[in-house]
Specification:
Helix content: 25-40%
Bound molecules: 6-O-phosphono-beta-D-glucopyranose
CATH superfamily of the largest domain: Dihydrodipicolinate Reductase, domain 2
Distance between the termini: 46 Å
Radius of gyration: 24 Å
Structural class: alpha/beta
Order of helices and strands: EHEHHEHEHEHEHEHHHEEEEEEEHHE
Number of helices: 12
Strand order of the largest sheet: 14-13-12-11-7-10-9-8-15
Largest sheet: 9 strands, mixed
Shape: globular
CATH architecture of the largest domain: 2-Layer Sandwich
CATH topology of the largest domain: Dihydrodipicolinate Reductase, domain 2
Number of domains: 2
Length: 489
């Protein structure tokens, strides 16, 4: 594992949920694993008044909570918290940035930190333009020395439409260099997602089958049991299409469908991702209702900060196509929803069946030879195939060959944010979204959003919490999850 150079991380939105739930716990884990540089400090900035010590005490509770049942090493925790500082400041006022600049300068002097700074925008999206603009106005977007650098990490949602994403990109590129901008998508930080690349490109056995000749369809899903909880305000304006599909699930699709880059380096990998996005077949308005099903869980409109007549979708299933040589006419079924029966994210590759059935009970219809990549929970990879039942005759039974990540035993599975934060510190943007990829994904999503806006509540299907989403999804022709062939019973 590489260790990053000494640097300072400035977190805007430091008293918020993301910082307490994800960022500081992940940084703590990196600290414990010895992956932080020797001279690395964190300066939290937010409106709430805290002294450094008060802020440390406030975040200590969150870090402890995030460790759940694991034992906390108090000495380690305190030594991590000594890296943390805080400045109460109003990020909407440009004049305040002088105070921030002074505080940074002081920390750099006192702690002998070099002129290398990452700014993390863990704020509401409304601030993604203003904060960088204020940094620029105060000369804080460029390094003051030859070895120095500035980087900025932007949380999702990156825009709410093609137009706003393009505007934000343009704005940021005017302030930072593209290579200094890190657009985070936490799905790409998941070990199991990165492993898709290793599974595909380090094994010779999959590549010959990985195309339209042998693959019937691919399903990519992220189901959740929770509802919108206390995020109604954000979610009601976003919906599942923007919240999950435009970013996480489309990225999973790209990892599944992309060609191998010639070298494992950020730009060649990101080039291949963009090629997939550009080959996505755009939806025609008259086809949308046949190829996309949207739903809302019953009771959603009664959630806090949700409009009583909201038409926001909490479930989306869509049939997509990638118009290129490898994938022509192979349906990709992408679906996600809240308040479903289980929490799971997975990729299921359904292979075509044999051209002719020889054995009793043999599956047909591309339903039983599957490669299941389980992203979470119970991270695993399973290959399903038919075998002979012991005894007389030749009756087929479907069996599964399983690999479970926990069989790698002591190897700790890091949280997505640990990996992504460390990559940004190292200057590795492979697992961050590039502006052209983002814009290409919005190009697919935008017409759907317009269509739904015009349709209002028409074709919005309600579903019972705890079940599997609206029944209307059946019209997409997805292979049923539970195979009904004799050998699978
Ligand atoms: C976030 C979405 O990006 O991802 C949430 O905003 C969603 O609505 C979450 O719950 C799911 O992430 P994970 O890692 O739990 O699958």
């Amino acid at each position: 594992m590489k260790t990053a150079n000494n640097q300072l991380l400035v977190i805007f939105g430091a008293s918020g949920d993301l910082t307490g739930r994800k960022l500081l716990p992940s940084l703590y884990e990196l600290h414990v694993r010895g992956l932080l540089p020797e001279r690395f400090s964190i300066l939290g900035a937010a409106r709430t008044e805290y002294s450094d010590d008060e802020y440390r005490a406030f975040e200590k509770v969150h870090i402890r909570e995030s460790l759940k049942n694991r034992e906390v090493d108090e000495a380690e925790l305190d030594s991590f918290l000594r890296r943390v500082f805080y400045l109460a400041f109003d990020s909407t006022r440009s004049a305040e940035y002088r105070r921030l600049k002074d505080r940074i300068r002081l920390l750099q002097q006192e702690l002998q930190l070099p002129d290398r700074i990452i700014y993390y925008l863990a704020t509401p999206p409304a601030m993604y333009e203003l904060i960088p603009a204020c940094l620029k106005e105060n000369g804080m977007n460029v390094a003051g020395s030859k070895d120095g650098w500035r980087r900025v990490i932007v949380e999702k949602p990156f825009g709410t439409s093609l137009e706003s994403a393009e505007r934000l990109n343009k704005h940021l590129i005017h302030i930072f260099d593209e290579k200094e901008i890190y657009r985070i998508d936490h799905y790409l930080g998941k070990e199991t997602v990165q492993n898709i690349l290793v599974l595909r490109f380090s094994n010779g056995i999959f590549e010959p089958l990985w195309n339209r000749n042998y693959i019937d369809s691919i399903e990519i899903s992220a189901s959740e049991t929770l509802g919108v909880e206390n995020r109604g305000k954000y979610y009601d304006g976003a919906g599942a299409l923007r919240d999950m599909i435009q970013n996480h699930l489309i990225q999973l699709m790209a990892f599944t469908a992309m060609e191998s880059p010639s070298v494992f380096e950020p730009e060649p990998i990101r080039d291949e991702i963009v090629k997939v996005f550009r080959a996505l077949r755009p939806y025609k308005t008259h086809d949308m209702d046949n190829l996309i099903v949207r739903g809302q869980y019953e009771g959603y409109r009664e959630e806090k900060n949700v409009a009583p007549d909201s038409t926001t979708e909490t479930y989306v299933a869509m049939k997509m196509f990638i118009d290129n040589w490898r994938w022509s006419d192979v349906p990709f079924y992408i679906f996600t929803g809240k308040k479903l029966s289980e929490k799971s994210s997975e990729i299921v590759v359904n292979f075509k069946s044999t051209p002719h059935q020889l054995f009793a009970g043999q599956c047909s219809g591309g339903s039983c030879n599957k490669l299941i990549i389980r992203i979470q929970p119970n991270e695993s990879i399973t290959l399903k195939f038919g075998l002979k039942m012991p005894g007389a005759g030749f009756t087929v039974k479907q069996v599964g060959m399983d690999f479970r990540y926990d069989s790698l035993s002591k190897n700790y599975l890091p949280d997505a944010y640990e990996r992504l934060l460390l990559d940004a510190m190292l200057g590795d943007s492979t697992l961050y979204a590039r502006s052209d990829a983002l814009e290409a994904s919005w190009r697919l999503i935008d017409p759907i959003l317009h269509h739904w806006k015009e349709e209002g509540a028409k074709n919005l299907f309600f579903y019972t919490p705890g079940e599997d989403g609206p029944l209307e999804k059946a019209k997409l022709g997805m292979i049923p999850k539970e195979c009904s062939c004799q050998s699978c019973q």
